[in-house]
Batch of 2 targets.
Target 1
Amino acid sequence: MKNTLSVDRQSNQLYKQIYDYILNRIERSEWKEHDKLPSIRTLAQEMNVHRLTVFKAYQLLKQNGKVYVKDKSGYHVHPDSCVSFEHLDYPIVSSYFLRNHLSEIHQVPATYQFSQALIDPNLLPNLYFSEYVKKVFDLYPKVLGTYSTVQGDEELREALSCYFLKRHQLHLSADEILITSGAQQAIDLISRILVKPNDTVLLERPTYSAAIDIFRQQGAHIVPIDIYPGGYDLEQVESCMRQYKPRLFYLNPTFQNPTGYTVPLEQRKRLVELAEQYRCLLVEDDPFHDAYFDREPPLPLFTYDTEGWVMYIRSFSKYVAPGLRIAAVASRPPLMRSLLTAKSLSDNGTPLLNQKIFLHYFSSARLQQHLEKLRIALHIRKGIMEEELAVTDWKWISPKGGLNLWIKLPETIPMEELLIKSIEQSVSFVPGILCDPLRESASWIRLSYSYANEQQLHDGVQRLINLSRSLASSESK
Ligand SMILES: Cc1ncc(COP(=O)(O)O)c(C=O)c1O
């Protein structure tokens, strides 16, 4: 079979591209276990690269246990090189395997549900919605007889445009807003229009797990940017922008998932300047903006953007009605056109009924009243979780909003075992490794305090603590 890899010859990581390419063919079973790989000379000739480059790639494959060497017969595929979690970290390979790690955890039923960053349905305005459903059918009797426009219902986009102006001093026309089926779809559409295999994408470390899966599926080369309680190290951001020339930086700067950290105002302004300077689009995902406890967070980065280097995703799923799947993407015109094409290819528009129901709730005074009560309820639940955890030596920074605690456990606790045993005991949580683009944060976990009720928070956290104690002590015996 002829090799079809086109390599980027300017890259000083040429051998890494060849490594990825070979691994990809092994993954796709084109080369099976114990098969002999092409000789270094043959591959170098076919790919028009130096033999030493191929040698370096083979050495790395050997070092990582993907191939082995047989005396006088060259390199062979190692039988253990079957598809595994680890392989998904390689850009070219990852685009062949579609996974959503977080949703795999969410599908496990649990009484003590700490893995879902969703709000307890009992805290949502369910009753009002049944009223609005009736109202929407009265007002628009043919609402189910037609599609929405691809961009989304105009009335809703106008309402959002007024809302952004009033709340964030943001001047956005209805044409600059796209309604998507949740923020997750927005991230997916953006990745499809902007990211090609091996394009560099900056992601916070840690970050929203599904975003890692989406960009990885697109074949992106992911470069992590650490997030701290005080924001980013802007020198790191600048040096990554300068060095890697990324297509975009996906960020969740307000009550970030999973950490709860918020990037301060001064950094927001500077980030927009850096984005302009290095022509790196900032994709600002802001689903927790209204989920603050005491004080409103700083304005979105999008407000400081004058040149079109920020795209803004605002989901309303979390605190209004997750089942409606409504989010808005704000973007300046050239990118909006591509987004509309992607949206039309994806689903031809978010269901009109959902948009109209949402519109009527969103435009009513009830939304703000609901939010005020919700903030208090979330604050109380966070307090309960923290109170239960206070007996441990686990470490976390208490967030000022959002839905999660990001917690460092002692390294003596074996994480995989803790997850398995917790699920057996009906307690679920997100292992930090899923939120880490480098798949390293092994002793961190994300616990959501927003879904379980107060009693479940008390009981479930106690169960988790007891389990971790028994595992830690059995490990050290
Ligand atoms: C940072 C972030 N972005 C996007 C989403 C997905 O939001 P939606 O339900 O609107 O698709 C989530 C959900 O947890 C999230 O935490």
Note: Confidence is low (pLDDT under 50) at residues 83-98.
Target 2
Amino acid sequence: MNIECPKCKSKEFTKLSLLYATGFSDIETRSRGWGILFGSGADLAFGKFRTKGEVQTRLSQNVAPPRKWSYRKIVFGGLLGLLILDFILGYVDTFLRTGGNVNQQFAWFGYGYLGMVAFILFLAFRYNFTVFPRRYRVWNRSFMCRSCGHIAQLSLPIDPSGQALVRAASR
Ligand SMILES: [Zn+2]
């Protein structure tokens, strides 16, 4: 493994997925002497970080994999919104004692709302099938510099000289 950090020229990297799997608590409680088996079997010890807080912030921001949009949450949120909407409209209707005419408008309002929820579901569907796999692949070959926390991606295939090309993570 021959990656060089574009920022600090360090050659020690840890895969993001590995960092994520290991969890934050491990790093918190064992800030030094933390060894991992990696890639070719080289035993790498976790170097000391400048400050723990800084690393944790970076970890929480950068290490977690991209997530799929949850259809269930959207539907649940949509239903909840509909209930609130219904309640408000019902209240307004009772309060104003409007009668049938305005009810029709409320109905259209409700259809519009349902259409919006459907549209959000469609966006989620599209995201999960196009953007998400791409982001996940990028995440899965992302590495974090163990000196400065810079995140870089290993671009495959590795060229014949054995030098892995590193470019800045595009997020
Ligand atoms: Zn670095």
Note: Residues 13-66+142-168 form one domain.
